[in-house]
Write a structure and sequence with these properties.
Length: about 400
């Protein structure tokens, strides 16, 4: 234990509060308020940085400059956009269900901010180490789906309502493979505590390296859960004109925008916690604060992958998106859960179990890719046959 250990700093802070004659109840209350303010400040600040980074990265990928006017390198562009949204007129549709309409944006942000409570940012740096942390993450994720559905229904707009229906179809569908992929490391480790899951991935025994297919399923499902390209069909401008939040303006629209980018950060942090060792890394046992650096570097890497995918790939059709969820990801995730449960129960040494899970994951991935490739070739042949038939019919007529 050193002064660079967050746990030592926490003990020093509690001792300082108690030295002022405060009762234990007041110490707990002050700590709760301080942690809440820190997490909220971190979340809101990180969103401004993520928005700037996403626009810059998308610009570079697509041979553009991105923000470059407000501040050096456009760093203050996000602040300018936030001020603009705060000063825009707040319009409420005349026939909207006002209570539900006004609650939806706040619920969307609340659901994401509450996830920060169980994220282990470093050794001892966790607001609440729940023994059902993974279950808590799944439960809080459902609030975001409810917020989108509330916004679509309460707006009294057919396009917003269609966006709400797509919320149920897409987010609930992809939540199934996501939850199943999250349960694979839980089965392997025998705990739902996110902090204990990180501790069990010491010495580069990361679950994402042992079970890469489960990690890939989580990443794909996270893209869909966060409504990011190529799964942004809830906000398809060409079809339903921005979807469930079409009737929102000003600060209420900004709340949905805030929830979107904050969710990107949280899903990345959960991926790092479950599959990439969290704050584990070299020399963390000697300098615990290094764990915070490792955690944020890994999280930034996953966020960059999400941004790269959004700037690169085109949008899927709705039938392709649903087929990928139900015909590919769900069966694969179920098979991975069965494999993990079998590997844990068999009396194998740890190394043999890790090797078995790794190679079974790779085999399953290649089988799934082969099946997808065969299906795409069949679709291409059917399309080519229809095209030839149409050409011959027009020539004959």
């Amino acid at each position: 234990m050193t002064l660079l250990d967050p746990r030592v700093l926490g003990e020093w802070w509690n001792t300082f509060l108690r030295s002022g004659g405060l009762s234990e109840g007041w110490v707990i209350f002050i700590n709760a308020v301080v942690v809440t303010l820190i997490l909220m400040g971190f979340g809101l600040t990180s969103v401004l940085i993520i928005i700037w980074a996403e626009r810059k990265i998308a610009g570079r990928v697509q041979d553009r400059l991105g923000p470059n006017r407000v501040g050096p390198y456009g760093l203050l562009q996000s602040v300018a956009d936030a001020l603009k949204l705060m000063t825009k007129e707040d319009i409420t549709p005349e026939r909207a269900e006002r209570i539900t309409y006004n609650l939806a944006p706040g619920l969307a942000v609340f659901a994401v901010l509450m996830l920060l409570v169980v994220i282990p940012f470093g050794p001892g740096l966790i607001a609440a180490d729940l023994n059902i942390g993974v279950l808590y993450v799944v439960a809080m994720g459902s609030f975001g789906i409810m917020a989108a559905l509330m916004a679509g229904w309460a707006s009294n707009n057919k396009y917003a309502l269609l966006g709400g229906f797509r919320t149920v179809a897409q987010l609930l569908s992809y939540e199934i493979p996501m939850v199943l992929s999250m349960s694979v490391p839980v089965l392997f480790a025998g705990t739902m505590s996110l902090h204990k899951l990180v501790e069990m991935q010491a010495n580069f025994r990361w679950f994402g390296l042992i079970m890469p297919t489960a990690f890939l399923i989580y990443l794909i499902s996270a893209l869909a859960e966060n409504e990011r390209t190529p799964f942004d069909l809830l906000e398809a401008e060409s079809e339903i004109v921005a979807g469930y939040h079409i009737e929102y303006s000003g600060l209420k629209f900004a709340w949905f925008f805030l929830a979107f980018f904050l969710n990107t950060l949280l899903l990345s942090a959960i991926a790092v916690t479950l599959f990439l060792g969290g704050w584990q890394g070299p020399f963390v046992d000697k300098v615990p604060l290094l764990g915070v650096l490792y955690f944020f570097l890994k999280t930034v890497l996953i966020v960059f992958v999400f941004m790269w995918v959004r700037a690169t790939f085109p949008r899927l059709r709705i039938d392709q998106m649903m087929a990928l969820a139900w015909k590919v990801l769900v069966p694969m995730a179920l098979a991975l859960v069965l494999l993990a449960a079998t590997a844990v129960k068999l009396p194998w040494p740890p190394l043999a179990r890790d090797v078995f899970l790794f190679f079974s994951n790779i085999v399953m991935l290649f089988v799934a890719l082969g099946a997808i490739g065969r299906h795409l070739r069949q679709e291409a042949e059917r399309f080519s046959g229809r095209q030839k038939w149409a050409t011959s019919s027009s020539t004959t007529s």
